[in-house]
Amino acid sequence: MKTKFLNKLKYFDYGLFIPFLILCLIGIVMVYSASSINLSYLTGKTMQYFIRQSIYVILGIVLTVLFAQTNPRWWRRPRMLLFGWIFLMGLLAYAKFFTSAINGANGWINLKVISIQPSEICKLYLVMFLANLFANYTAKGKNVFCKRIRRKLITKELFLFLMVASMLGLIVYAPDFGGFGISFAIVIVMYLAYADINYKTSTWIIVLGTALLGFLAYLLQFTTILSNTKLGYIIQRFLAVFDPFKYANSSGKQLVNSFYAVSNGGLIGRGLGESIQKRGYLPEPYTDFILSVIAEELGVLGVIVVLCLLAWIILRIFMIGIRSKSIYAMYFCYGVGTFFAVETFFNVGGAIGLLPITGVTLPFISYGGSSMIVLTIALGMVMNISATQKRGLEVEVFGK
């Protein structure tokens, strides 16, 4: 037993695990710093989010190690993938139609102990589903899926397309534009990896798919915009990106205060715990705008450390996929790498005004149970692939 345990440690991917641990520790400290002052004003208690985030991190570490060690064959079982789709569609529908809106979106299911955000789970599910789908088609011959689509949409391919499209449709209907954007990016990148960038086929699929989903999103959101007392609020969020100070008292308020936080921090920051903007100016500074608090308290250098650690994890995940001898493992790593990269880009872009604010968390740093659990499971699964590569069993475990 001891020899078996030591053998597993030998193939453990510390190049992924150690940066992940450092980010989690930074996240715990910054969640406490960003939340404690406002909690003391409201309740007199300062440790609430610190304790919860610590629990999420401990749970996440356990899940990472667990999924890095378990037999990965069950990931590809068709029955599990089908039941997973049914289960997640049920969660998305329940969240939309039977829960109260939070910040204008029906995207959370409150279980008292933890709030589940189904769209977070969908990101990992789409990676698992598409990796299995494209690996199976690749095994049947180069671009079999593309050739069938060019001829006609046969029943099976149409059903598979509708499975993905319906999931994306419910996510955007919540509405959760951040979750939709990340999920859609996962679909596009994994398809391009499968199509081997066959430009004619890829371009037509992307254009038609984007047009269809965009039209669906427009129809679903049109009634929301009309029924909102602040007509055009969604449009104002986009306009605020281009001129936030013009909308400083409305949709641009969050971004303006984020700018102030980054400006106040300078190169080395004001010092841990000394942020001004977290004191009621930035809404929920321990989630969407935690990078702004890091910039104000730890400066540009602190932000660079966090982003370099995230970049290391993302690039290493892609490298594991590139050197993979298993087509399935390659697709899976590309999907998870895209998931991490786009989520980071959305959060950072929202904080510095490159993108509209979408409510996306900063991986392993922001407060949140659903996000932490899904991210750590995904990381553990990639570490599992890395371990099988080192042992030379990748093709045997995942297939060609």
Describe the structure.
The chain crosses the membrane at residues 12-37, 49-68, 80-98, 118-137, 158-174, 180-197, 204-223, 289-315, 327-352, 364-383. With 400 residues, the protein is mostly helical. The chain folds into two domains: 1-70 and 246-400, no CATH class; 75-227. The chain has 15 helices and two strands. A two-stranded antiparallel ribbon has the order 1-2. Helix 2 runs antiparallel to helix 3, helix 5 (118-140) runs antiparallel to helix 13 (327-352) and helix 12 runs antiparallel to helix 13 (327-352). The longest helix has 33 residues, at 290-322. It is globular and about 60 Å long. It starts with a helix and ends with a helix.
**Which word captures the global form?**
globular
Sketch the topology as an H/E string, one letter per element. HHHHEEHHHHHHHHHHH
Q: How widely separated are the two ends?
A: 31 Å
Strands of the biggest beta sheet: in what spatial order?
1-2
The DSSP helix count reads 15
Q: Would you tell me the structural class of the helices and strands?
A: mainly alpha
Cα-atom Rg, whole angstroms?
22 Å
Biggest pleated sheet: 2 strands, antiparallel
β-sheet strand percentage = under 5%
Number of domains: 2
Pick out the low-confidence regions. Answer: 220-232
Average pLDDT figure: 80
Q: What would you call the quaternary organization?
A: single chain
Helix content: over 70%
